[in-house]
Every structure is written in structure tokens, then in C-alpha cells.
Amino acid sequence: MRIVLGVGGGIAAYKVASLLRLFTEAGHHVTVIPTEAATRFVGTATWEALSGNPVSNSVFDDVHQVNHVRLGHEADLVVIAPATADLLAKAATGQAGDLLTNTLLMAHGPVLFAPAMHTEMWQHPATRANVETLRARGAAVLEPASGRLTGSDSGPGRLPEPDAIFDAAMALVHGQTDFQLPLAGKTVTISAGGTREPLDPVRFLGNRSSGKQGVALAVAARNAGATVRLLAAHMEVPPPPGVEVVNVETALQLREAALAAAADSDVVIMSAAVADFRPAEISDTKIKKRDDTADPVITLVRNPDILQELVERRNQGVTGPATDGQLIVGFAAETGDQHGDVRAYAEAKLQRKGCDLLVVNHVGSDKVFGKDTNSVVILARSGSEPQEASGTKADVSAAIISRIGFELNQVSPRA
Ligand code: CTP
To answer: Are 265 and 168 in contact (CB under 8 A)?
Structure first.
């Protein structure tokens, strides 16, 4: 596929180098057209080296080739990233002062804008009107991500992550014309990893969860356009970029963070492995082994069931403003035993916990924990058909997030 990648003059231009790599590594032929301002952030040499093609931003270079006509006509896709307020305005009003804006006017194929700017600029009525104009003409304009911006400010206006733009671009060329990322404008809270319940200053009760599935879910939700909050218990993998991270250690800390985050979340996914029990007492000092004392006995007390509490609060309408349509997703790691098989235990757990979706893992000594692949069944409380998903944890996460997007768009009364 031939792609024109227009780069606007914003600091986020540096992230577009990764986007360019994603395109070229997927085998696409990319011509980069940076605006004059963009080259003040990332130089032409970078774009030439990464794309393997000559780069220009002037209609007066290689005039005999009539570049703006050729590039516009040949492009199967035009992606503008970062789409600055200035570029959106120029595109909306049909200006043609440089090679990029000329090419946009000549483009026959789909056009995707990935905006990035300060929140006030994005929310300004002038920018809103320009975005509406472009969308009304059939261009796809992504919602920017929320989070830390260039200065001390934060809010909507971050460039979506390169892989999110890549996914959106591929969806667009595959005919998604009514373009909207499935979780655009939604806030998704995801708990990940395993809690650690301290015994003394150096010891804890933990579990084998690596956090890989939770992190993969965070990436998939982010790529689907959501603002993602990751409640990270102990994880063996780093959190992904572009998500807000709240670090927790114990089940009680996770409960506090989850209840607070649920207040403004459209979706809560409890993928963390939460310890069901914690030591009744935490010793302030290291527990010593002494010959003259009996073997220590650890007394455990139950931890609150966070998932169940989230569901109860949602159903009682006390969670917060997003309560009404909030979707709650649980995970179940099951082995099955002489009293029941995996599916029977999972169905019972779905009813007991009352969550909307339950993602069921079949775990054994060599399955799931710490592995890169997974195989799950998604059970729905609505009673719709169980859905199977397998593959890498990224594949499974994409299937779960897509199912969540589908459920959110259903108008379903809650019991
Ligand atoms: N969970 C939770 N709080 C707990 C324990 C678990 O929120 N104290 C959540 C997990 O994050 C997961 C789901 O509940 O989404 C199921 O966890 P699991 O450990 O499989 O279920 P249990 O409630 O422990 O049930 P059982 O002991 O019967 O397997």
C-alpha cells in the first residue's frame, strides 16, 4: 500500500517516527511530507532514513513530476500525525500553501487525522468546527488521548500512541467509513498483576501472576481509543506508555484504588490476581527463627472481594457518575477438580460475583501464568453465547476489548 504520512509541526512529531516504522515494517511504501514547522522538531534526514524515500515539503521541488498531483492520486491512504490545530484549520478551509496541503486536496483515498495539541486548543470552538467539517467530508479524525501534555498541563490532547494510529489506519482502509474507535471517549480501569500480602518487613504471600495479560489489555483498550488507568499490583513487565498507572501492593490498597477509580470509569476490568487471604498480623520486625520457640503459625483473614463490591456499588448506584452504564469484567482462573469442571465453576462464579462478563482461564502448572499465550472463554451474564478467544495475550486482549466495545454499545437494562 502507498501511504502519504503528513507530519505537522508539534512536539509529538517525534512519536511519528515510530508510526513510520510500523508502516514500513508492515511492508508499506511511505512518503513522508513534513510541514515546514515539523522539520523544526524532527529533521528531514530522519524521515528520509526511516522511510527510504526522498522527503520534501515544497511544491517547487521536482516540479516536472508535479508531486502534489502524483502523491495525492497514488496514495491509498493519507495519515496526518500530529494533526495540529493549524493543519486541521488549513485542511478544513482547503488551503494549499505547501506540498502537504496541496496533496490533501488531491487525495482520492481515505484520510486519517491524528490530532495533538493543548486541551484548550482542542476544545476551542474553532477547532471543534474544523473537526466537524473534516468528519462531515468523510475524513477520519481520531480523538486525541488524555494525559500529560508538553507543559505542566494534562487533559485531552495527547497524540494517540503510534500503534493505536496504525490500527486505526488499517481499519480505515479496510472499509470502516463510519469511523470511530470502539472505546473513544471511554475511561477504562484495569487491575493487573498479583497482590503481595506482607508478613513482616521482608516477607509476603504472593502469587504467580506476571501482569502480562493486564498490560496487554491496557494496550488493547488504549488502542481502542480509551483513556486507560492501570492499577498495577506486582508485575514482571513494565506498564505500557500512554496509560495512567496507580501502583498498589496489597489487596486492601487495590480495593481502595479500584473503588476510587470506578467513580469515573465506564469499564472496570479486574484482571489482577487478588489474594483471597492476608496474614492477620504483620510483624513490624523480621520474624526470626529461634531454637527455643515453636514453629510459627500464620493466621490468615479474608480479604474483601473487590470485584463483588464493585458490582454491588454499581448496582446500588453509589459508584459515581458513570454508574449507570458501567460495565464490570471479572477474570476467573480455574483448574477444575473432582467436584466440578472448569466451565461449571466459572458459571457459578459469574452468578456469585454478578459481573457483566467473566473471562475464564483454564490454569494448570504449565498454563497461563507468565506465559505469552492464552486461551479463554468469555461468559456473559446476559446469557449470550460464550465466546472463545486464543492466541497471544495481545490477541486475546483485543478480542476481550472488542467484546467490551460491543457490550457498551448495547442498551441493556441491568438487574
Ligand atoms: N477478585 C477480587 N477480590 C478478591 C479476589 C478476587 O476482586 N479478593 C477478583 C479477581 O480480580 C478476578 C475475580 O475476582 O477478576 C476472580 O478471582 P478468583 O481468584 O478466580 O476467584 P475467587 O473469588 O478467589 O473464587 P475461588 O476462590 O472460588 O476460585
So the answer is: no
Residue whose CA is at the smallest distance from ligand 1 atom 4: 305
Determine the Cα–Cα distance for residues 307 and 353; give it in Å rounded to an integer: 7
The reply to whether 187-408 shares the fold of 2-173 is: yes
CB of residue 230 inside a 6 A radius of ligand 1? no
Which residue's CA lies nearest to atom 18 of ligand 1? 332
User: What's this model's pTM, rounded to 2 decimal places?
Assistant: 0.71
Q: Tens of pLDDT along 171-197?
A: 888 876 555 677 888 999 999 999 999
Which ligand 1 atom sits nearest the alpha carbon of residue 258? 7
Listed by start position, the domains of the chain span: 2-173, 187-408
Is residue 307 in contact with ligand 1, taking CB distance under 6 Å? yes
Ligand 1 contact via 254 beta carbon (within 6 Å): no
Q: Are 192 and 248 in contact (CB under 8 A)?
A: no
Cβ of 306 less than 6 Å from ligand 1: yes
**CATH superfamily assigned to domain 2-173:** Flavin prenyltransferase-like (3.40.50.1950)
Q: What is the pLDDT of residues 152-165, one digit of tens each?
A: 777 788 998 898 89
3-state secondary structure of 35: coil
Give me the active site residues, please: 207
What average pLDDT does range 99-127 have in this prediction?
A: 94
Q: Which CATH class is domain 187-408?
A: alpha beta
Q: Is 197 in the pocket of ligand 1 (CB under 6 A)?
A: no
Sign of CA dihedral 320, 325, 329, 330: positive
pLDDT score, position 118:
92
pLDDT of residue 70: 81
What was the pLDDT predicted at 324?
A: 63
Q: 112 Cβ partners below 8 Å, 6+ apart?
A: 77, 78, 79, 80, 139, 140, 141, 142, 165, 168, 169, 172, 179
Atom of ligand 1 nearest to the CA of 310: 7
Mutational pocket test of ligand 1: of 208, 270, 339, 350, the residue with most ligand atoms within 8 Å of the beta carbon: 270
